[in-house]
Amino acid sequence: MDKQVSTATIYLGSPFYNDDQRARVKKARAILKKNPTVVRVHFPFDQDFVDPEEKNPEIGGIRSMTWRLATYNNDLTGIVNATCGVFLYDMDNIDDGSAFEIGFMRAMHKPVILVPFTNDPNKEKEMNLMIAQGVTTIIDGNTEFEKLATYDFNTTPANPVVGYKIV
């Protein structure tokens, strides 16, 4: 058997607004670090731009145009430089930013591995058509998260979305 070579640069996309989402990112990074095909993981919040002109940006929710442009451009550069994307998709709190990043990545013909999560295992599984058809592979975050450690990011084999009501 040939030795696997680390060539994949991962764009790790995820909302990062609550404790569950932050914990998933931490766990995903640890799992991806074990994967022999991954050379680097880019997580956009690691390059969080700070506008020195902003006063108390966390209060009020309105960010400066300088911050918005820098953040947007930094995220797109991360996607452009990645070989594929891994998206921790919060099915309880759908994030428009993640949906945009998935679409942008697919428009560049780059594979996307979707890892959906829910805190309600009894919740009906449903997904937007554009997300379901747009991703290359689905790995269930609640039951298969550890598969990220052995997934071959060099060849990115397809595993289409099944078992979801498509809306």
UniProtKB/TrEMBL annotation:
<dbReference type="Pfam" id="PF05014">
    <property type="entry name" value="Nuc_deoxyrib_tr"/>
</dbReference>
<keyword id="KW-0808">Transferase</keyword>
<dbReference type="GO" id="GO:0050144">
    <property type="term" value="F:nucleoside deoxyribosyltransferase activity"/>
</dbReference>
<dbReference type="InterPro" id="IPR007710">
    <property type="entry name" value="Nucleoside_deoxyribTrfase"/>
</dbReference>
<keyword id="KW-0328">Glycosyltransferase</keyword>
<protein>
    <submittedName>
        <fullName>Nucleoside 2-deoxyribosyltransferase</fullName>
        <ecNumber>2.4.2.6</ecNumber>
    </submittedName>
</protein>
